[in-house]
Amino acid sequence: MKDIKRTTVKALLSDPDKYIGSEVDVKGWVRTRRGNKNVAFIALNDGSSIKNVQIVVDFAKIPEESLKEVTTGASLHVQGSAVASQGKGQAIEIQADEIEIYGTASVADYPLQKKGHTLEFLREIAHLRPRTNTFGAVLRIRHSLAYAIHKFFNDKGFYYFHTPLITASDCEGAGAQFQVTTLPLEDLPKGEDGMVDYSQDFFGKMASLTVSGQLEGELGATALGCIYTFGPTFRAENSNTPRHLSEFWMIEPEMAFYEIEDNMDLAEEFVKYCISYALEHNRDDIEFLAEHFDKGLVDRLNFVVENDFVRLPYTEGVKILEESGKKFEFPVYWGVDLASEHERFLVEEHFKKPVILTDYPKEIKAFYMKLNDDGKTVRAMDVLFPKIGEIIGGSQREEDYGKLKQRMEELGLAGMDWYLDTRKFGSVPHSGFGLGFERLVLFVTGMQNIRDVIPFPRYPNNCDF
Ligand code: ATP
Ligand code: MN
What we know:
- With 465 residues, the protein is an alpha+beta fold.
- It has 2 domains: 9-103, CATH 2.40.50.140; 129-176 and 211-452, 2-Layer Sandwich (BirA Bifunctional Protein, domain 2).
- Helix content is 31%, strand content 24%.
- The radius of gyration is 27 Å and the shape is elongated.
- The model has no long low-confidence stretch (mean pLDDT 95).
- The chain binds adenosine-5'-triphosphate (ATP) and manganese (II) ion.
């Protein structure tokens, strides 16, 4: 092989004029191979783009015999001349001078053959599915969204604040927690009362994986002004739905001096920014997914970016649902925690727009939300999206020490003095929200199941790879 600097497939395809007429060096995996008795056409993909570059091999130059192991999945190093392509759908191709096979992929064993595979089957081979066009597209979009999130907040002067993954507070109430322990489960130390003696555990008390970084995020916001977290979150709820994972990533901005309206403005601007970013930077991937899974995808994304979200109090939302005459699986009445079917009715059938539902009954929301003057509802805001239902949950936080303490006592929450201190010393109005990262990726990719938008999904009875 000659000493030529490697070019990515993406670079070749996005600027063909720069390369045509010169010698190039590419590396990647074989997607398909076809041809006749004189030439072989190899579609090579290196992960940089949904598109492949076509390698043309003339058997007069490279004997067919040496290409026996060039099959789907094999990895290659190719050098040759970049030429204008005669074929349709590509501007540039490579006429190979030399091909080195890095690794073969036996046709008998390699599970990803040319025929399409179901998403369910691909979940069983999650270690290989990033090699498919579909998962390549999803994972590139996922990356872009993560980058857009950091860019959005950085450009607004927010600080990336790291909250702990192991926590001893079980007060968040957002979901069931996974316990973290080094105690021997088959021989637990017990106290006189027969209960487990956690003073002998690793942290000297009971500890768990976090379900949300919010409470610690508030500590950051009430010092740095505006912060956001972006990290893994764990929920041990046994919810086998297409919208829940046991391990997912959450973005939680928290802002001092923001009232609920500022919070809604930020949430709306933020999701629109992320979607626009993906539309601009991942066009090929989005179009691929639209073509194969969801014809309405691009229109839906544009629609969300271009329209104002509806802002509606919970009480009015419930009225609309009650008067809709629609038969829901779960009953609707004031005070109920809305189910996904209710949320989706409001968004998809009634308003046909994303909806921010506000002012929920305090009983169905977390203790830290600011009580409205009616004494019954709290300043909560859930952002509801078509196909997804709840994508964001947030609120203005109760900043009044007395009210917050009373609410925590009502609910029997103790051992949270560090949290109450934010209200004791220089308390300020503040707000924040949580966006489930995978729900955003789900929306932008048009995939149906949240297990297909994270490389290695964790859900009940599944912890492979
Ligand atoms: P849901 O009602 O959909 O179960 P939640 O009310 O429990 O969600 P929050 O506690 O408000 O969710 O969490 C904030 C955000 O995190 C949600 O709006 C959602 O986008 C996301 N989220 C919550 N639970 C999960 C989960 N198990 N898997 C993936 N994302 C989740
Ligand atoms: Mn919620």
